[in-house]
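Box 3.1 A note on notation
Throughout this textbook, protein chains are presented in two layers. The first layer is the amino acid sequence; the second is a token string describing backbone geometry. Keep the layers aligned when reading.
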Amino acid sequence: MTNWDDVVALASRLPEVEEETWYRTPALKVAGKGFARLRSEAEGGLVLLCGLDEKAALLASGDPAFFTTPHYDRYGAILVDLAEVDSGQLAELVEQAWRLKAPAKLLRAFDRR
């Protein structure tokens, strides 16, 4: 079972990730821009930024780890049930979310390594 600490550990492998808060909940940011947020316990799930096509594919997969709510329906973010998600897939999604917000210069440097 994956938890917030596991998400932080995955993200810490990426350059310039900061653990902060966003909407008064734990969050991950790069260059001051949020890309992942743990929703409140009452809300449940992890918010990860993604493209709308990626979101549609994840939801269409039928995997119970991925869901949305009306609030996020037309927004580029997928909700992730940490108790259900595959850790390898989560690592990929965290990196993709980071890439959406990381500055171009940082992305170029990261991709050159």
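The longest strand covers residues 17-22. DSSP finds four helices and six strands in the chain.
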